[in-house]
Write a structure and sequence with these properties.
The complex is a heterodimer of chains A (252) and B (345). With 252 residues, chain A is mostly helical. Chain A is built from 11 helices and no strands. Chain A has one domain. Chain A is globular. At the A-B interface, α6, α7, α10 and α11 of A face α1 of B.
């Protein structure tokens, strides 16, 4: 997928950020479709990387299975069966992926599926590059905790990447491109030696301007990430738990 | 879409975690703790040029329950002006939408850490009496703490004892400000989950049962609190927690040991602990003052109301209390006898 084609789906999702769980049960076909797109946008990369890692499948097979899985979600209405009182959506989807891959394997049905999930193009090449750049400890493969951890980590990465993309768009809309570049340089590129003073010098602005710009960008990033997260959770309780997981609050 | 490295994800987590203090008088210093409701940071009050503790919610809560709990905690603290209760300075909403309050920054140690350096039983009991003072004051103002445990007690550098974390407090009467009472609906704190589940936060404060969302800490929580018997909670529920706390101070464990292992507890102190932690509230001390009085009696070498002594125990206590005079009289009598014997020779 190209980032832009996904984002068009994300943007068209109702501005109230209604939970996808509620939206997929809507009688309005368009709302259902948009909810599924939002879900696919957030989860396709974690699912793809998980299938590659957990099932040690070649890229092509994992791509087919990832597309197949989201088609399955659409056709078999898997989200209708999800009960937020019993588990997190993230865990439920991971278990569904395992079950889907096993069934496909047993039935020997794995086949090349044409096309993408409507409105959500899947950029597997980029996902493959990311997978190559991700540090994986081979000693931890296949323990239940490591599977959950891996999926969670990739899900957080995907959530944050979507939020960063939304932030970039917001900055463009509000003519704050420089703010985004500061945020990118300081918070995303991970140069530990870079200081606010360095940025102020590079951009010809005061340190206070850098501080204010970064505070604004972080505040907006946080708000966008939490909004997206809320949309992907079934209940307020799940949202609070997932927010803790996403922002690492349980581990600090 | 840009790929985020592990380092970038961690940086985003860290930066998004920090509260946005723009527009406030505070400057963020460092993160110091995490509780069930939110995170505590230290910050500098730039106007008064002093360090404060700033407690802030994790996230802007959508349903308002957590907001109400944090605000209520701040208002309870504001209403309890006592040397044993940490004073609150300010409350508000940050630019990022999170509710916060600031309070005195206590530079001290948690009780469980502090007592590692206090070996003397009387010293430990004196600390306990100061905790009782603060709790008795809160009860007199119609506030139950409901989560008394060593982790929620701080001891300052000059030995001052502060009862912290009033987030689970229940307001019994309207002595406290009406504003805090407005948000003290049991529906806020005790909600009915659809099915029995168990969940814990990082401080192990929450236990969910099929009867209601019970808040407290296992080992320190009264049986009626553990059952979610909200209607009948009163001061005696906190007395149970104080009894467990006293036992922890004396033995290192909040619950009575089933075997004879561990430090041997004086019978009077064991009786105070047993009476405070009786399963039935009616068998406990009726109020904190009575309990503290029994502990003070023990410290003064007097009989405690929780324990009926045998003659032997009475004699032993009498001897301990008046040892100096008894030894003096004994020495005098011995000397007189020796003199008499010498003169009759």
């Amino acid at each position: 997928m190209s980032g832009e084609s996904f984002q068009s789906g994300g943007d068209r999702f109702p501005p109230t950020r209604r939970s996808v769980i509620e939206a997929v049960r809507s009688i309005d076909a368009e709302e259902r479709q948009l909810a599924l797109e939002a879900l696919c946008a957030a989860y396709w990369k974690p699912v793809y990387k998980y299938v590659r890692w957990r099932w040690s499948l070649p890229a092509e097979a994992a791509q087919d299975l990832t597309q197949g899985f989201f088609m399955e979600v659409l056709e078999r209405e898997l989200l209708e069966k999800f009960d937020p009182a019993k588990s997190r959506l993230r865990t439920y989807l991971r278990v569904c992926v395992d079950s889907f891959v096993m069934n496909e394997d047993k039935a020997g049905r794995r086949q090349k599926r044409g096309g993408n999930i409507p409105h959500v193009a899947l950029d597997f090449t980029a996902a493959e590059e990311e997978l190559g750049a991700t540090a994986i400890d081979p000693a931890k493969i296949a323990s239940p905790e490591s599977l959950e951890d891996f999926f969670e980590k990739e899900w957080v990465r995907s959530l944050f990447a979507l939020a960063v993309e939304d932030l970039r768009k917001l900055c463009d809309e509000r003519e704050r491109a420089r703010t985004f570049r500061l945020f990118e340089a300081y918070d995303l590129e991970g140069n530990e030696k870079l200081s606010y003073e360095d940025l102020a010098k590079d951009y010809g602005i005061s340190v206070t301007d850098v501080t204010n710009a970064l505070a604004w960008a972080r505040r907006e990033f946080r708000k966008i990430a939490l909004d997206r997260l809320r949309e992907l959770c079934g209940t307020e309780e799940e949202f609070q738990r997932e927010a803790r997981a996403a922002f690492g609050w349980d581990t600090k | 879409m840009k790929f985020l490295s592990d380092r970038a994800v961690e940086r985003l987590r860290g930066s998004a975690d920090a509260p946005d203090l723009s527009g406030t008088r505070y400057r963020l210093l460092e993160r110091i703790a995490r509780g069930g409701m939110g995170i505590v940071f230290t910050a500098e009050d730039q106007q008064l040029q002093r360090r404060v503790a700033l407690k802030v919610l994790d996230a802007p809560a959508a349903n308002g329950d957590l907001v109400n709990r944090l605000l209520r905690e701040a208002r309870v603290l504001a209403a309890l002006e006592h040397p044993g209760v940490v004073p609150v300075h300010d409350v508000g909403t940050l630019a990022d939408g999170r509710v916060f309050y600031t309070m005195k920054f206590v530079e001290g140690q948690r009780l469980d850490k502090y007592i590692e350096s206090i070996a003397s039983v009387p010293d430990r009991l004196r600390i306990f009496l100061r905790i009782c003072d603060a709790v008795a004051f809160a009860h007199a103002r119609g506030v139950l703490h409901r989560d008394l445990k060593p982790a929620n007690i701080m001891v300052g550098p000059f030995g001052e004892v502060l009862v912290m974390d009033w987030g689970l407090a229940k307001i019994l009467r309207s002595d406290v400000s009406s504003a805090s009472r407005e948000t003290d609906s049991d529906e806020t704190i005790f909600e009915k989950p659809k099915q029995p589940t168990i969940s814990r936060d990082t401080t192990e404060t929450y236990v969910v049962t099929g009867h209601g969302t019970v808040m407290g800490t296992p080992g320190y929580m009264s049986p009626e609190q553990a059952r979610g018997d909200v209607e009948h909670l009163d001061a005696r529920s906190d007395i149970f927690s104080l009894g467990a706390l006293l036992r922890f101070l004396l033995t290192g464990h909040p619950e009575a040991a089933s075997n004879s292992g561990g430090p041997r507890l004086d019978k009077s102190l064991a009786a105070i602990c047993a009476k405070s932690t009786a399963a039935s509230p009616s068998e406990r001390y009726p109020n904190v003052t009575e309990m503290a009085l029994d502990v003070s009696r023990f410290l003064d070498g007097l009989a405690v109301s929780a324990h009926r002594e045998s003659i032997f125990e009475k004699a032993r206590r009498f001897y301990r209390r008046y040892r100096f005079f008894i030894l003096l009289i004994a020495a005098y009598l011995t000397m007189r006898i020796l003199i008499l014997l010498f003169m009759h020779r």
